[in-house]
Batch of 2 targets.
Target 1
Amino acid sequence: MAEIFLKNAWYCAGWDHMVHQGRKSIVARKIAGVRVVLYRKPDGGMVALEDRCPHRQAALSLGRKEGDSLRCMYHGMKFRSDGVCEEIPGQDTIPEKACVRAFPVVEKDNWIWVWMGDPAKADPNLICFSVGPGEKGWNLKTSQMHVETNYRWEIENLADLSHLTWVHEKTVGGDPAYGQIRPKYQITPRGLNTIFWVRSVDPTGAVSHLFPPGTKLDICFDIQHTVPCNWIMRFRAFTAGTATEGESNGKLVVDTWTCQTVTPCDEDSVDYYYSWGCSDSTEFPGMSNLLGGTLDEAFTEDKIMLEAQHVRRKEEPNRKLINIGHDAGPGKMLWVLDKLIREEAGGMPTQQGVTA
Amino acid sequence: MAEIFLKNAWYCAGWDHMVHQGRKSIVARKIAGVRVVLYRKPDGGMVALEDRCPHRQAALSLGRKEGDSLRCMYHGMKFRSDGVCEEIPGQDTIPEKACVRAFPVVEKDNWIWVWMGDPAKADPNLICFSVGPGEKGWNLKTSQMHVETNYRWEIENLADLSHLTWVHEKTVGGDPAYGQIRPKYQITPRGLNTIFWVRSVDPTGAVSHLFPPGTKLDICFDIQHTVPCNWIMRFRAFTAGTATEGESNGKLVVDTWTCQTVTPCDEDSVDYYYSWGCSDSTEFPGMSNLLGGTLDEAFTEDKIMLEAQHVRRKEEPNRKLINIGHDAGPGKMLWVLDKLIREEAGGMPTQQGVTA
Amino acid sequence: MAEIFLKNAWYCAGWDHMVHQGRKSIVARKIAGVRVVLYRKPDGGMVALEDRCPHRQAALSLGRKEGDSLRCMYHGMKFRSDGVCEEIPGQDTIPEKACVRAFPVVEKDNWIWVWMGDPAKADPNLICFSVGPGEKGWNLKTSQMHVETNYRWEIENLADLSHLTWVHEKTVGGDPAYGQIRPKYQITPRGLNTIFWVRSVDPTGAVSHLFPPGTKLDICFDIQHTVPCNWIMRFRAFTAGTATEGESNGKLVVDTWTCQTVTPCDEDSVDYYYSWGCSDSTEFPGMSNLLGGTLDEAFTEDKIMLEAQHVRRKEEPNRKLINIGHDAGPGKMLWVLDKLIREEAGGMPTQQGVTA
């Protein structure tokens, strides 16, 4: 089978508060098919090791933190934070191969990022831009969800917003205008930037009651989508202006960031970490909480759709599918991903480069 | 693997009341390995489409009824009741292949029947005879059950009533006389007719308390079994008479129809729809309700047996089995089914015709 | 795939009280991949048959006891306790092959033992030594647990007690001394005997509050481990003496037997039957109950570890593992088991014999 995961990439392993200094805070994850255990050293530094003892494959996530190290609580082998074994009870010599794979791990914007490929290539500059819940001037609310689907269907989902009209009719979508948009896409070395406006539309389902009857909005979506599946959007709403191109000339009433990342656990499930919230300047009581809660609702709508889709795509993986105009975004984003996977697997970069 | 389902056949998709005019009444089924979505048009007409959008295999059963059409609520593609796509949001042209498979569907005797094969061959005359719960002069009570077994084991179960003695000792069987019966079978082009009497036996378990102590009954079973697995029985009980052949000369005290159909979902499960009830002329307070409720009990007994059997038959599919006399009915019914499956797959009809 | 179960061996099917004289006491087990049904005859004698009717693979465990026989409650075939069919309802002749496999079965020390191989080789002398809960002078408490792991990982677990230190820190282990032990092993024709002392250690977690502060104990483990996975230990604790070799010269304060047997159901799960308790002479109020209850706690600790390990070993069955000193016991015990499996499969006994 062809490789389906990009190795040389930062994958989000959760919000930073999920792995804390508590004695028992040792967290098991599955990332791109690999079991990872996460814990913090006494100085707060994050450690990511393979969650599999080299002795008999016991779960290190059932282990015990001892200083900077992690002890396997099956036979007591103790591993340093770099994965090197420093103690095997009952013997003096330690075989050189008695070590655990250690993963480069970085915290940024309150997300934990793990590099699943060659550690020598783990460049922190490749971590996706995002706005953390701790960012000054912003009130982002965080959440997470497990979805039993393949992460490629999540990429298709996020790279095309026309589905807001249908899947999210009652929450973050609803206006048929979303279904008519033909955004401009800009392919980047590791993703896709998209910006588009919908103008003079009704407020979306979940927030429509907050606006006076008849309010029309100009809405701007400005999205940075990067591999493996990070999706960062500045979402702004203005009272409807008269401009038909470029910035709205209405009044900015909602200025928000939503930061989302989908981490494939394996081929059949993902962990989804996300946030949404307002700028201080457009906040009003309850607004950021509403946005955060709305995402939980909306992503439950996606979960139902994507899990039913995944069942069907697994049943008939070779069924010939038809394409539509809205596949442009998903197609480009998957093209970038597959190109990087191919290159990593030893194939040559394609001639088109990254701006096809 | 050899085909295990007959395609050119009507399969029951449920009782008519299961798919109604309500805005959200869109029903998902799996029939003979194929996902089917059912809904009613505003005029009440039933529609059956494949439950799989041709775009990205989303579940159409998560869709929305719009007039006679069904809209996929992932990207908004809208399909007519004949499966032809009539709208793709965001574009004017519609690829010719953007259509969903539509299945011939007919309602008869309060059952919904879907034709899973070549639509050109969908002859409503092939729908099995039955007596619906709405039939005048009869009081049939309906029910249904999901069973995790292969439908061939259901055919074996229904084509031999000797199991009443054992599996249904406390409900619809119990008398050892059932275990001794050697019925006459008449093979038909698409099934098996069976008629037999047991004479001067005790009332069966579930109804025995309704008769005075010592009551003996003559019971007639008259069964039409057709492919894929429809099973229609007129069941009559008389006070025991003196006749040893043909009609009983006792008094008819229970005159009933039970109509049953087993729809294979896939190789490992079936949906079972069934009814039982008395004629007006032999009804007395509570009798038809008792019969309906007794079937629920009895088929739970079958479910336990057939699910345990299915586990074992899957574990050892090639184990050499031994045959007994009571396999005559099952053997003939499976012979008819397999002959039709072979012919459909392109094989020649066998020389013996249908009266082997 | 290579055979993973030894056939010519006695496997424990449970405590004798689990299969009783009650009309409905018919017990289904899966032993070394084979479905077995157990019941008692009116004289109390135990019967073990394959839980699979030769007719259509119905579950005989859904059957009915009739005298010494078991009737399949699907079509009424009745089998003697030796598996021979004695009745097929509706016919006079009984095909010779209409019989069920019968297994030699013996009760000993309140355990039920089933021989899964050639009946001619079923030598009761091969049943492992144990001390039953009914043994005079002892107060053994019994229990059982189902664990979703491969029985080889249970063998590894039991053949090395260094894991007491880590897995059972709070229950039956805890002292780092256990992690330093290098026991002497004596390979036997069907297993491994191990005896070792830990001296002047703290009382283990679960019983430490029963001893005055500062108490030190000399503890002796004397273990007979036999195939497939029986594990019988005399466990004694003395107040710490001055002897550094051989018997402690402290006072015997705890004298116990724990008898444990792990029966593989299939490759992915085991049934674990075990007991622990004191001699009358070292019993004090509640002590044997405490020991029995402590095993339930400790084996729940093992279950968590072994199930997580099994998931990982199935994910990467071919991963190269590293070995440590404490693998000596597990290695020898698996060597004995694999040697017997190979010999049974027709291979020659190895030259080393049984004392490698």
Target 2
Amino acid sequence: MTHRIALIPGDGIGAEVMPSALRCLEALSRRPGLNFEFTDFPYSCEYYARHGVMMPADGIEQLRPHDAILLGAVGYPGVPDHVSLWGLLLPIRREFGQYVNLRPVRLLRGLTSALRDRGPEDINYLVVRENNEGEYSDIGGRMYDGLPEAMAIQANVITRKGSERILDYAFRLAESRARQTLAYATKSNGIKHSMPFWDEQVAGMAPRYPAVNVEQYHVDILAANLVTHPDWFDVIVGTNLFGDILSDLGPATAGGIGVAPSANINPDPGVPSMFEPVHGSAPDIAGQDIANPIAMIWTVVMMLEHLNENDAATDLMSALEAVTGEGKVMTRDLGGTAGTVEFTDRVLAELG
Amino acid sequence: MTHRIALIPGDGIGAEVMPSALRCLEALSRRPGLNFEFTDFPYSCEYYARHGVMMPADGIEQLRPHDAILLGAVGYPGVPDHVSLWGLLLPIRREFGQYVNLRPVRLLRGLTSALRDRGPEDINYLVVRENNEGEYSDIGGRMYDGLPEAMAIQANVITRKGSERILDYAFRLAESRARQTLAYATKSNGIKHSMPFWDEQVAGMAPRYPAVNVEQYHVDILAANLVTHPDWFDVIVGTNLFGDILSDLGPATAGGIGVAPSANINPDPGVPSMFEPVHGSAPDIAGQDIANPIAMIWTVVMMLEHLNENDAATDLMSALEAVTGEGKVMTRDLGGTAGTVEFTDRVLAELG
Ligand SMILES: CC(C)[C@H](C(=O)O)[C@@H](O)C(=O)O
Ligand SMILES: CC(C)[C@H](C(=O)O)[C@@H](O)C(=O)O
């Protein structure tokens, strides 16, 4: 069986860590029965500079017949976010119904937490972020623009269908884990309409998963607890914005944004899911071979799991963690001296 | 001159730390020229149990003729948040136009940060939270409730007037500090209508404060940076929700929620501002003399500053930090054994 993978290296360090991913995948494909067919898509800010769009009008259709999309990062100085993100990243997430944004937060062996006295046994949870609706809705606008009375209104849209599918995913995930604990982020003590509705969807689903302990946290306290009590958490589910914040905060306690992977998943096998490191294109450090490829390699592990290539996934993750655990070859953001290529070499050597 | 102070002890540990505040204020009022007139308001969940409302219909009018309101905390199990908060806390903030929520984050001497290798010199910033509009708007509702098509829409309302007044406050504050740096939280790369408007208000105001370095952070990255680089920050301004999250996260790195003070300010002297610790009523630890009074005592310091009693404010803060710095008498949440009363005794002894 051949997995058809669409590659979007993108901009900056996105394009620099993509070769690390490909080298890992090529090494794994030497195994019998594991095959990939890669198609390159140049969609990026550079593409935008030449064509005036981030991807062609039929870009989504070109991506559709793939089993997965692997993305580096997009964004470049001078290209406004609403162009680079709303022209590529967000449409892919939404048009393919990738309603789950799954972001593991785990302190890899050998890495030092920014938290005092915290080790790998203390930081090990999954952030499940709703990825299609909520605070990121397109609905809203302005009135009296330019006048003293100017105002903007942004609608936050939470649907029962959108909530149930993400909550169902989160409950199942929590049920499958040893601790069977699901924390959900809300702010129903302050935000009057959307958040009580969200709480009700959680309450409505809980009886279907009697084994799961459900814990409610207001998002402010939850953020604080990720610092003071990371060991309390197992699976955390949140709306689009809350999931976004918590899944950047979590990695900050676990080696930084340079190691954090993510998966944008539509569990329906008929459409591609997308895998991307949490970090951005980081133009300030691009082109110097200093980007940390850990996030990208871990992202590849998540893609392999999604493709049901569990042995390959396990072996790649073990190789990665063997290297961090040993600590001899480490990237600069983690206190070492190794470049992107050298670190990847070491992982490949370990992978054998 | 006599300062008329409205006291709302509230529920749980709110009512337990209020005596600590009063003892400090009484000690200070032995000084010539410093006088307080206290009026007690029993507004609380207990009041609700007896009267069916958190405060009487003319509650706001009863509070109005005061120079400041000092609040413990409200909330009690069995009383839903929308009753306890929307019936008391949020109306006070909004009806008195307390549009500034000021929350200092500073690691007091003697306290240990949850962050590795971080000391008092690394954590010292002010979170300025917009306190009246934004994500906490009343506008919104539901459709198809109870049906599979159910949805809720929450409007986030950002006005130019509301933004300008909070930004003006934040810019002035940044200008007055040594580092003259203002970081603002946004999410204009993902949230299409409200956040670009907010960014424009910041950009529009910046030229009026040429001495201030303005730095833009998306809220997810900002949250991460409060963990990895707290030393980067001086003054941080954010919308109601972003300010809420960041001002709980910050204290988590600086001794915990038990030490965090806050001020809800309307700079217009004609209406009372309100001072309250960031922590809630914590019913789980109430009634045991173990609540940490530091947040409340520091809140009193903020109130004294607001009342222009700067000597008294400085002396009380010095006494508090002398006690934490010495570290002999410490509350349980900070690793000591002292109760609420014993810790307060020690501060009073230091105050002389
Ligand atoms: C209790 C809640 C409504 C409140 C808020 O979000 O404003 C609290 O978290 C705070 O920060 O004062
Ligand atoms: C770049 C931005 C739109 C994006 C988001 O908020 O979804 C990013 O922060 C992420 O988390 O993938």
